[in-house]
Records
---
Amino acid sequence: MPVIAPMPAARPAHIPSQRESSEDGMAAGTTVDHLTETYRAHYRSLLGLAALLLDDTASCEDVVQEAFIRVHSARSRVREPEKTLAYLRQTVVNLSRSALRRRILGLKLLSKPMPDMASAEEGAYEQLERDQLIRAMRGLQRRQREVLVLRYFADMTEAQVADTLGISLGSVKAYGSRGIAALRVAMEAPA
């Protein structure tokens, strides 16, 4: 499944309005139309990315919506429209990290942890496999989990993962290899 959808060829190029072109002569950046198309095309994949980093649907939806709001607010800084999706992915990863930090702080302040509740509509077998994978992913180091999510769920290349996380290509390979080995051991262990 391709992650980046090409822009439709039939659409005319964005012509900046007089107001846009008069603002200090700056480039227009990502247009609202392009951001809207990106939203329609990639909302679900970004939601899935957040779901692999977080554990509840409501938080995932909040993170993805906040990411689109932030990119919309900063769209003039995204000079090349083809980089909008990468900017959105990075924002989703960063907002997911922040959400996890807030949860950890909240759990420290609570006297009892909240129980995890599965949704009723998910099948029992799929739920068991999903729970096992989530437990295994949670057992990984943070960087290993991030590399595996970006590499295999978001279909990013190792170089893209390195750029997104701000680490070297060798580190991406090492974290990925160690993460897969740890997942293999965790998934084969009896529950």
Note: The first helix runs from residue 18 to 22.
---
Amino acid sequence: MSRRTRDAIVVGGGVVGAACALALADAGLEVTLVEGREPAGWQPQQPDLRVYAFAPDNAQLLRTLGVWPSVLAARACAYRRMRVWDAAGGDELQFDADRLGREQLGWIVENDLLVDRLWAALPAAGVQLCCPARVEALEQDADGVRLRLDDGRRLEATLAVAADGADSTLRRLAGLEVSRQDYGQRGVVAYIDTEQDNQATAWQRFLVSGPLAVLPAGTHRSSIVWTLPDAEAERVLALDEPAFNASLTRAFAGRLGAMTLASRRAAFPLRRQLAQAYVAGRVLTLGDAAHVVHPLAGQGVNLGLRDVAALHAQVLRAQQRRQDWSSPERLQRWARERRSDNTVSAYGLDAINTIFSNDEMHLTLARGRALGCAGKLPPLVSALWKRAAGL
């Protein structure tokens, strides 16, 4: 039995939850992290299929938390260019680090590596771990929250943070409802080798069936996220390797020459899911527990870490002003800011997916031309990239 009151309890130890625990500890709070199972650990010889296009603002957040150097030292593939085009025709939309005055546009990083390095930093930050443990019950009042865990422990805190994923238990216990839209699509993921150098470029080709992203993981090694309708994803996963390689190479129009599988394949269902509110009393929700978006622009984990960065900044501002960091007014201010940004991003990605995953004639004629026109306007290119990069 543990009844000592903490400042914050973070439920969920994935990338966003672990980063939130570290960020609140960095602000001087006493933090407990609750996670159902201990991470397996990063295996350098077995790259994680789940990768992120990590944005510069979130790299800075992890640098502030003392984690980013160890991620870079392990394995993070910088990309310097992005090229986006429509299979139906038209010019490309291109982003180039040199033209934007950057050393790189971002990094491709494995989920397991990020979790491994974040967890390694928890003890030194003073974060108390309850693992393995899951939340079973929640009570709260104006002064704080009380959680009962499945191992019998009871925790008390000023604030509880739901960072336990799209099917969040804590969010449900707090009564925070969500709206869902199933896309009827799956993201097929794998590592591949390409005949030609991928040029440190993140590539995306829009097909009627959905976007195909090819992300650099080495000179000739790439990670793919191939969005397909459910039935087509099942068919592609069932193909033998030569047939899969041929189908993938064809879908990418042979842009990097022949493509060959370099790992197992997997697929995950795609949906949009948005919490209707981010705060219920002394419980707030962030990351996938608050918002799930289409992966076509790689914004999922980036949006979640921006939730964390905004919360971190708000706590620090309150402390500098000798004000209550957990006041309902401050929590609601954070919620309004992040819900607005995340909702705009979610519906924007939804619109892009709808427009480009479509064989309607007028859209087909217009969209490639629109990409090309956007690419010819440097201020627009810069604004689009800054939005994606969180700058």
Note: The mean pLDDT is 91.
---
Amino acid sequence: MSQKQSFTVRRDGYPLRSYIARCAQLAMCLEVSASPKPGNIDRHDDYEDTRYEHFLASAISMYPVMEEAAESLHGAGELIKKAVKESVSWQNGGNTHFGAIILLVPLAMAAGKTFDQKDMFTIDELTKCAHNIVKNTDTSDAIEFYGCFDTAGVKVNPVDEFSLQDERATNELTEKNVSLYELMEIAKEYDLIANEWVSGFKRCADCAEIIIGGLQDRILPGKIDVDINDVVVYSFLKILSENEDTFITTKFDSKTALTVSSQAKSLLQNIYSKEVNFTDIKASIEKMDAELLEKKINPGSTADIVIAGIFIALLAGVRY
């Protein structure tokens, strides 16, 4: 499948903003429900302080912000901050969807702009529009974004420039007229979500292709059941196998993150090189899941990209 393949925009009788917001909500719910997803919360696995139900509450809470994003061309930073505030005000499990919000907001903005103008679109058009939107962010977006971290309780890497630990950072942003996109450029080498902004949401688009192809039995035909749960889990492992999860890197170190990616790659190699299908390796996935959960190693950045991929796939008309 090509990212230039055209999809028809669904018009279901409700305002376009409502359709886009529901796709965003469903994407978050489908990702957290998929199991077994090594190291992450799902319908069968909770953490001590954060549960599956916290993620569901977070996903449902963001509906009005995603509606607003679908009708906006500017103000990405403020929209991200609003979504984070809604997320934490509806549940007590802490940071659930911070990275996903950073991806979903500009993609929802792009969907609103793109679908308002035409009835057919390509994934390439959608992500290019989102990239143009984030490139046009300004200093006010950066300042609003900085206000999210305390609210969400997000752990960040220490940096020399515009450090979140420095109370003078927002003044420095204003003095140097730094946009939110420029902040993402600074962070792109050590943060997977920031890298998506700068690279034009490439991994999000790739993930959407995997999901669309998986549900049409075009990704490894016959080896993965045409089942939303298995397709999402496969997509998660595929993205994880090809990228260092920077959420793990921040929480532990790069070596740990790369080891986890290598584990995911080894699992998938069994499908690629042997006469087995996805169901045959479920036990191995569950074993990896148990090991990561015990060590509290959770590939959160990968989950965020998968959410964005599901969102794009739903916008493209995927049903299951």
Note: The beta strands are 6-8, 120-122.
